[in-house]
Design a protein that fits this description.
The chain is mostly helical. It has one domain: Arc Repressor Mutant, subunit A (Orthogonal Bundle). 56% of the residues lie in helices and 11% in strands. The chain has 8 helices and 3 strands. A 3-stranded antiparallel beta sheet has the order 1-3-2. The longest helix is centred in the C-terminal third of the chain and has 16 residues.
Length: 128
């Protein structure tokens, strides 16, 4: 019998920290918008990521700036202007986004698999 030992999650799955950073709830759509459309003001960004609240957008932008994925530029004008753009580090994720975009052709298969699963789970079960 093999003895199980605890393994640090980062050693068990070395991409887990990457997934935590890049694929948190709002990070991916924000980065995608900045990558696709370039520098954005807060209002324009919130219009492109339509279902995010201003509070959450602010929190995510701050975290992404802290992580080095986004650069924030403040212009001391009247009224003040702030713009956000994807950093070089954030832009380095472009191949990953492109690969995920290519994989999206499989979404119909995922939906069909879900429907098949749900149909099997809702069907009356036979007693054996």
């Amino acid at each position: 019998m093999t003895e199980l030992t605890e393994v640090d999650p980062e050693q068990a799955c070395p991409i887990a920290p990457v997934v935590d950073i890049v694929f948190s709830r709002w990070t991916t759509p924000i980065l995608w918008v900045l990558n696709e459309f370039g520098r954005q003001r807060f209002v324009a960004l919130s219009r492109r990521v339509t279902t995010i609240t201003p509070k959450v957008l602010t929190q995510r932008l701050r975290q992404m700036e802290r992580d080095g994925l986004v650069e924030r530029t403040y212009y001391p004008e009247v009224p003040p202007r702030v713009e956000y753009e994807i950093s070089e580090l954030g832009r380095s994720l472009s191949p990953l986004f492109a690969a995920l975009s290519e994989w999206s052709v499989n979404l119909d298969k995922v939906e069909q698999a879900r429907q098949d699963y749900d149909a099997r789970e809702q069907a009356p079960r036979r007693r054996t």
